[in-house]
Design a protein that fits this description.
Layout (H helix, E strand, L loop, with lengths): L1 E11 L2 E8 L2 E5 L2 E8 L4 E6 L10 H16 L3 E2 L2 H11 L15 H18 L20 E4 L3 H13 L4 E5 L5 H12 L4 E5 L6 H11 L6 E3 L7 H11 L2 E4 L6 H9 L5 E5 H4 L2 H13 L3 E5 L6 H13 L5 E2 L13 E2 L22 E2 L1 H6 L1 E8 L3
Helix pairs in contact: 1-3, 2-3, 4-5, 6-7
């Protein structure tokens, strides 16, 4: 048997190379939460999440407090006899803490993601096993990463489109706001070229009339997938958009836990899902969201949140290897976006969106540089035995 005896929480602001802006937020730093777990055998594992209040209803501060006060004290009482027991526990949790630890109605998916990854990493290292029972094959031949553009002023948009064309992206997502969205799509299609699969992400910026008008107009520019066109909670209206426009709607902020997905399916409010590990409650829960979406015939995008380190990217690659039907992939930005990663190896996509090789080793297969992590830590806490 093995158990966690100590945990350290880190609120971390990893600086970005340039500000990242979309309709729902603008940020200069990652706003991350890292969790370090130590087993009774002295083995260390790490988890990471990026709580966003407009996605899961959590902030870094609230997630850290929940972990410190409600989840980690109960986690220290659990023992596991094998890596399979750890996986079974996390599958049963399905992206949330056990109901007798935290009320299922309380926002917690981002907080639980840090636990999910830390347990997989710590106990994988304890028993010298990878995240999945089988050894990593490294085969991600079905995966091509997308480029992500913001609908900025005309000259800058054209410049970025030409850059994306030069580096060989075959799939591009264009983030738009309420104004000039159609013009931005027209410019992007022109300068990216006709062979690029272009899709649009509104990040909840539109109302129903704006969404309908934009979705119909963008057909002329080859856009057929629209990510989160309406605010969370407007499932009925999103279903109506699909019916009236004949276009695809991908949900992002509307999807986190299992219940949210079932509501979307029941109302036929989407044709595709954006599954992100941090917002879905960890790797095991994200895989369950993908499998359920695939069963329902939806397209799958496995995405990321701005500022993820290569720790979450390693989990992202592990998830991609389990989902051969993935349509789009976003992630592994590493130091393309971060000024400095705190994890080695740094996992970044290559030319044309080529995925990096999956890390090989126990747990998540990557190492956190704790001294570097502390450089960017703005608050921390400790639970359990003294360090």
């Amino acid at each position: 048997m093995a158990r966690i005896v100590a945990c350290d929480l880190y609120q971390v602001d990893l600086p970005l190379r340039k500000p990242f802006k979309h309709a729902a937020a603008e940020r200069w730093v990652s706003n991350s939460l890292f969790l370090k777990c130590v087993t009774d055998r002295g083995v260390v594992g790490f988890g990471e999440s990026l709580p966003r209040d407009y996605v899961t209803g959590e902030t870094v501060t609230s997630a850290l407090a929940m972990l410190r006060d409600q989840i980690l004290p109960r986690l220290l009482q659990r023992e596991f006899g094998s890596m399979q027991e750890v996986r079974d526990f996390l599958i049963e949790c399905n992206g949330k803490a056990p109901a007798d630890w935290v009320s299922p109605d309380q926002p917690q998916c981002a907080a639980w993601c840090a636990v999910d990854l830390a347990l997989l990493d710590a106990f994988g290292r304890t028993w010298n096993e990878p995240v999945w029972p089988e050894a990593p094959s490294g085969d991600l031949s079905h995966v091509t990463y997308s480029g992500v553009l913001s609908a900025e002023r005309k000259a800058k948009l054209i410049k970025n489109c030409l850059l994306f064309r030069l580096v060989g992206f075959k799939q591009v997502k264009l983030k738009v706001e309420t104004h000039n969205a159609v013009d931005a799509a027209r410019l992007a299609q022109r300068w990216l070229g006709p062979r690029v699969d272009l899709r649009v992400d509104a990040n909840m910026a539109w109302d129903v009339d704006q969404a309908r008008e934009a979705m119909v107009a963008m057909k002329a520019y080859g856009v057929h997938s629209f990510e989160q066109p309406l605010p969370v909670g407007q499932n009925e209206q999103m279903a109506e958009l699909i019916r009236s426009t004949g276009q695809g709607v991908m949900v992002d902020e509307s999807l986190n836990d299992a219940e949210s997905l079932e509501k979307l399916l029941a109302m036929k409010a989407c044709s595709a899902v954006n599954v992100r590990i941090s917002k879905c409650g960890g790797l095991m829960a994200a895989l369950q969201r993908c499998r359920r979406a695939s069963q329902a015939g939806l397209d799958i995008q496995i995405g990321c949140q701005v500022g993820e380190s290569s720790l979450l990217s390693a989990a992202h690659l592990a998830l991609l290897a389990q989902v051969p039907e993935v349509r789009y992939a976003e992630g592994c930005f590493g130091e393309h976006l971060l000024r400095q990663d705190v994890v080695t190896p740094v996992l970044v996509f290559g030319y044309g969106g080529r995925p990096p090789q999956r890390p090989v080793g126990p747990g998540l297969g990557v190492a956190v540089d704790e001294s570097r992590l502390l450089q960017y830590t703005v608050a921390q806490d400790h639970v359990g035995a003294d360090s």
